[in-house]
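User: I'm preparing a small set of examples for a lab meeting where we compare how different chains pack in three dimensions. I only have the primary sequence for this one, and I'd like the structure in token form so I can line it up with the others. Please keep the answer compact; I'll paste it straight into my notes.
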Amino acid sequence: MTKASWIQLGIGAVVALGLITAVVWRAPSSPPVESRESASKPDSGASVAEEVDSEANSAPPLPDLQPPKSAIAAPLDEASLMMQLRHAAEGDRPRAIQLARDGAQRFPDSPSAPERTSILVHALASEGQASEARGTAEMMVNHYPDSSWVREIEQFTGAHRHRNLRLNADGGIESY
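Assistant: Understood. Below is the structure token output for the 176-residue chain.
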């Protein structure tokens, strides 16, 4: 066989496979069952379009594509959330914002909170949300005054903590 013959054979096989796939893909899962009444009933004058519409409306419903509730992931523990957050901070800033906010809501005063808030400030700033980034930075520098992450955020945003005020263990502001 020549090279051209092999190419034609290959093209023919691809076309045949495409046609078979199209037919199988569109074929109903079981052939329509025609009742004896509809087979013996004379043509009522319905147009082909009406028949097609009525057949489309009587098609079986599509399967539910939602995952079963048992397959839905449980909320991440903090260590897993922080690992995903650090990874998202490198390139998927909207995801980083989402994860940081989720973590702040679920683990507000954990040891990872200052780092999580720092990542949130950087992600907000890079997404063009400067005002929200600055507000978050102001909250951070006052809420976590002794964190090494605060010094980095102070340099990044210009937000500075109120040096004579801090939050006590009860969440109240006290002078020092």
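A couple of notes for your slides: The chain has eight helices and two strands. The domain at 74-175 is CATH 1.25.40.10 (Serine Threonine Protein Phosphatase 5, Tetratricopeptide repeat).

User: Perfect, thanks.
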